[in-house]
Design goal:
The chain is an alpha/beta fold. It is built from seven helices and seven strands, in the order αβββαβαβααβαβα. The strands form two sheets. It has a five-stranded mixed β-sheet with strand order 1-5-4-7-6, sandwiched between helices. The longest helix has 14 residues. The protein is elongated. The relative contact order is 0.15.
Length: 202
């Protein structure tokens, strides 16, 4: 449920509400997909370019902003836990879920290609950088530094399974989390129902 904040909050005292309220757009769209489409296994591809903030609308914090990170609306550091898009999609029933980065271009291209060919709901998270807002506020260095950082912190999902929580702290797990080509796609199943109905078979 969305409450129009201007009816209840003093905007002057809350910098995070000085702009149009778009702080939960990604999460809302994915939750809509979760409840409306994922469980139906419709053939839909969602590619999420995650740059850890709302970089195109002013640099507000988002559900994927890391805890402690600085944005235009979390000037003292984000206090919310980072939202895991891939975990949500996997738990909701997506039949293809993968994550890569803009540094690992060949891997990312391969994941998107597989997702396009996949029969069912597919989600690919592409971790990328906001160099002008997020990078500057968090002193991440040059655009090249930000790009090379993905090489340093990424851990393949196969390797991560053997690592402890402490070893994974500050790391980003990449790879294919779900790949279920065996599960039938919704419209194919529905077509069979239509054929049965037209043939008069119960």
């Amino acid at each position: 449920m969305i409450i129009k904040h201007k009816l209840f909050l003093n905007r002057k005292n809350r910098p995070e509400f000085r702009r149009k309220p778009r702080l939960r757009t990604k999460q809302s769209h994915l939750n809509h997909a979760r409840f409306q489409k994922l469980h139906e296994r419709l053939r839909i591809l969602l590619v999420n370019f995650n740059n850890a903030n709302y970089g195109m609308t002013g640099g507000q914090h988002s559900p994927t902003t890391p805890e402690g990170a600085f944005t235009k609306t979390s000037v003292y550091g984000n206090i919310e836990p980072q939202f895991d898009i891939c975990s949500l999609a996997a738990s909701a029933g997506a039949t293809y879920v993968a994550r890569s980065t803009t540094y690992h271009t060949q891997q990312l291209t391969a994941f998107i290609t597989r997702a396009l060919l996949h029969k069912g709901f597919a989600l690919v998270e592409a971790e990328c950088d906001c160099i002008s807002l997020y990078g500057r506020l968090n002193k991440c260095g040059s655009p090249t530094d930000m790009l090379l950082r993905w090489k340093e912190i990424c851990v393949p999902v196969e390797k991560a399974r053997a690592m402890t929580e402490e070893q994974l702290k500050g790391k980003l797990i990449t790879g294919e989390f779900v790949n279920r080509p065996d599960r039938p796609e919704y419209t194919e199943q529905y077509r069979k129902i239509i054929e049965k109905a037209q043939g008069g078979n119960p």
